[in-house]
Amino acid sequence: MRNSGFLFAAALGFSIWFGGCQGTKPVSPNRVISLNVSIPPTNELRSAFLGAGSNELLYRVDGPGMTPIKATLGPFSTASASGSLDFSVEIPGGGGTRLLSLQLNDGGTHQPLAIGAAKIDLSSALPVTDIVVELGSVIRNCYNVNTTSYFGCTLGVNTNTFFNSSPTYGLSYDFAVGAVGTGFQIVDAEGTTGPANANTVAYLGNGDYVDFDRVPSDADFYSQSSAAKVAAGAPVSTAQVNDIYCVKLQTVPGGHAWVQIKTPGLPGNSGATFDYRANDILSYFGYFQTAADLVGSCPAQ
Hints:
mainly beta; 6-stranded antiparallel sheet
């Protein structure tokens, strides 16, 4: 369901320091970059979930030759339609490209509301210092799926094609969620025979979206998430709360979806619930709207 109301804008000020240390004594940074990051107001960030209570913002910066930096800002009030935050990030010396990932959470439940990411090129003598990161909702019906009454589903991401029963397969679908043993798993649904059509499901790990913001290598993809979790050495092969998967999409050519499990479900009792966000050609979860989202055809499921 779409909402066109004015929502939320946040200007985030970064001071990024390049430096090193000599023993335990810090030395002067060789350069200082003031990076201004803004989150524009869009109808993706509805006042329905930003205008009450509090929020928190998770950010993560990573790139070649550096240890990833992750922190949480807040909780802060979102009673007004706009606001600003200023904070500093210390990044080890060196240039190159960095990826900034953001995750807006409900400040009380710590559940994700919206995510987004952008690349920062620090390789030039005068790097870009004004960055816009547009966040995409993961709680609107286009990107949030509840199968508790269905015990499974199959989903075509781009057109929000939703089959609310046991997994089915076909060219209009991307992935399915179905029972396996005492739990549920994600399986490829792009082919016509199932359930092992193609290797399109990768297990990224368990945690926050910002911890798993990139597309993994092709070797990490399997036809079923249980196999992907076993290959990754996960202790439980079925879907668990806060598991995050990357799924190759047929309905978005060259695209991927990042899927996070909210409740794992119990076969014979209730199905799983999950949210996700898709991207078309980027190797990270930058902002992208599906065709169904663009035309406002995301009915309740």
